[in-house]
TrEMBL record, chains A, B:
Domain of life: Bacteria
Gene3D superfamilies: 3.40.50.2300, lambda repressor-like DNA-binding domains (1.10.260.40)
UniProt cross-references to Pfam families, sorted A to Z: LacI (PF00356), Peripla_BP_3 (PF13377)
Keyword terms of this UniProt record: DNA-binding, Transcription, Transcription regulation
Keyword DNA-binding among UniProt keywords: yes
Domain HTH lacI-type: from-to ranges: 2-56
Name of the molecule in the record: LacI family transcriptional regulator
DNA sequence: GTATTTTTTGTTAACGGTAACAAAGTGATT
DNA sequence: AATCACTTTGTTACCGTTAACAAAAAATAC
């Protein structure tokens, strides 16, 4: 593997000139520059990122800190990772996946944190010395990337209303985190806007629990009903419930989910859901973080993605 | 962040002595060793892995090359990654996720490759210069980690037989890769062993296609039937088919899947499946690869995991 | 008690880059 | 032609670590 010195020798210039051609080409005369380019091409030169990292006091490693039990959201994270990976590779960074349990001393240039709960801000996030981007909205002033959760829930609620249903139940996850509060707010405001009574139900994010809850409700009900769920997992549970009771989807029961990652397509019928552009969001997390690192930790602000309503057969024919 | 020199100065020894305490402690007298340990502790010394990497001509990066369309197997890979990550973190390695499209020149110490198809061996894998561990059985002599696919299919087939069913259909994926051939063989041998007629059906790995196929079959059938599927995704499709036709699971229709990652638990009823210990397997991939790197590329052989039959309500009450 | 071996410690020079400074070349100004 | 300013190139030292060798100290032999 050719080094800077090899390139320099072949082009009959000093190492420094080669280094400059790479980093500050405008400082080198066109003739030498061309010589160096030729030499680089001939030797198939690729910079040694480890050596660069050493001089720059960098590690070229960023960590993805997943504070949530991973099991509960797997397909979601794989997409996030895919997005992050694309951006990191382009900029010669690599990744370490860490969880709450692995409290290694943090040899890295920056972190993307996700799945944080209220307590984590003080005990973990505020103590980090490196630049951080959070994946998930927060009100503590940290840079973050998220989808517009409130709007997402608004458009689904409006969608089922537009299908002519006014008996609309909300199924959410029983945690008091900003993303869930926003989803609840999106539902609640839309209902109140139409003078309808919000009916909010919070539970563990499990398809079986949602199924159990929905069966109880459906057994007692005769009119048309819609369940707007704060996750596809809950949505799938409700689909199962309706099917077990032999109720027609979407004629008797309408169901919507949230996330649009994988599970929505597994359901039968496929689930109407709010798709988050997770891969894109992963890319953005990485991009913001690397920029932040380059800019010595300067805040990069927040980035909120527009949610997209994907209409499928749990709400329309 | 304290460096070797800082530790050395505080302990009043040379840098080299500190380095030796870390790498070859037996070469240092007990007194100095203790001095150095004290100094390290006092300064909270952590080696700079970048500098180590530079002297050792390493990158401390390994790549996970996913040759398969990721979308089709997401939850699966997240588990694999989790396993890999644990091992890498412990040994101060980091990760790059790459796919077929990203053909970066391979600045890394080794690769874990997965989702490879027949063509890939010649065009990609054989050209890699770094140590490689494959995730998935192969007959080309590469080191690999996999579950015993044949045995997995054997035990499921035997399990449904033990439930008193002898009309057993196999639903597999229409690719001629070793893992699938092994699963087919496991089914076929077990059937022939009992003098039963194997019925093999291959299709795209999609729950909706499996549902479509199974509905066709189920409409024409009256006796009890079992579907042993080569993936949970196919299994879920068959569950949906049985439910749409109002057939009783497991009394009229028995269904089994394969993988035991995430999807099996989403199904309703939960799917009897063959669980692969994916996290464990990921760990092993990483461990073998890092050992291989340390041993200058020496073959590490293969590692085949015992599959575990998880019996649930698609085969028994 | 000196020569010889062995153990322990220190010195130097890498690894592959880059920043900071020094030197040489170029051209304009007087 | 001498001075100055500017551009272009090269030299040196350093980032934090380790291997290879050299030197010093300790242990052993005779």
């Amino acid at each position: 593997m050719a080094t800077l010195s090899d390139v320099a020798r072949r082009a009959m210039v000093s190492k420094m000139t080669v280094s400059r051609v790479i980093n500050h080409p405008e400082q080198v005369s066109p003739e030498l520059r061309q010589l160096v380019y030729n030499s680089m091409k001939a030797l198939n030169y690729v910079p040694n990122y480890v050596a660069q990292a050493l001089v720059h006091h960098r590690t070229q490693v960023i960590k993805l800190l997943i504070l949530e039990e991973m099991d509960t959201t797997e397909p979601y994270y794989m997409n996030l990772l895919a997005g992050i990976a694309v951006e990191l590779d382009q900029r010669h960074y690599s990744l370490q996946l860490v969880t709450r349990s692995s409290h290694t001393i943090c040899r890295c240039d920056g972190l993307i944190v996700t799945g944080m709960r209220e307590d984590d801000y003080e005990s973990i996030i505020s103590r980090l010395e490196q630049p951080v981007i959070l994946f998930g909205e927060n009100m503590k002033g940290y840079d973050y990337v998220d989808v517009d959760n409130k709007k997402g829930m608004k458009i689904t609620t409006e969608h089922v209303m537009a299908q002519g249903c006014s008996n609309i139940l909300f199924y959410g996850i029983d945690i008091e985190e900003p993303f869930m509060l926003s989803r609840i707010a999106g539902y609640e405001e839309t209902m109140k806007g139409k003078k309808l009574l919000p009916q909010i139900n919070l539970m563990k994010n499990s398809s079986h629990i949602a199924q159990f809850e929905a069966e109880k409700v459906l057994k007692k009900i005769s009119e048309r009903v819609a369940f707007v769920c704060a996750s596809d997992r809950l949505g799938i549970g409700v689909v199962h419930a309706a099917q077990r009771l032999g109720m027609a989807i979407p004629d008797q029961v309408m169901i919507t989910g949230f996330d649009g990652v994988f599970l929505d397509r597994i359901a039968q019928p496929k689930l109407t859901t709010v798709r988050q552009p997770i891969v894109e969001m992963g890319k953005t997390c990485a991009k913001l973080l690397l920029d932040k690192i380059d800019q010595d930790g300067r805040s990069q602000g927040i980035c909120v993605y527009k949610p997209e309503l994907v209409i499928r057969n749990t709400t329309v024919h």
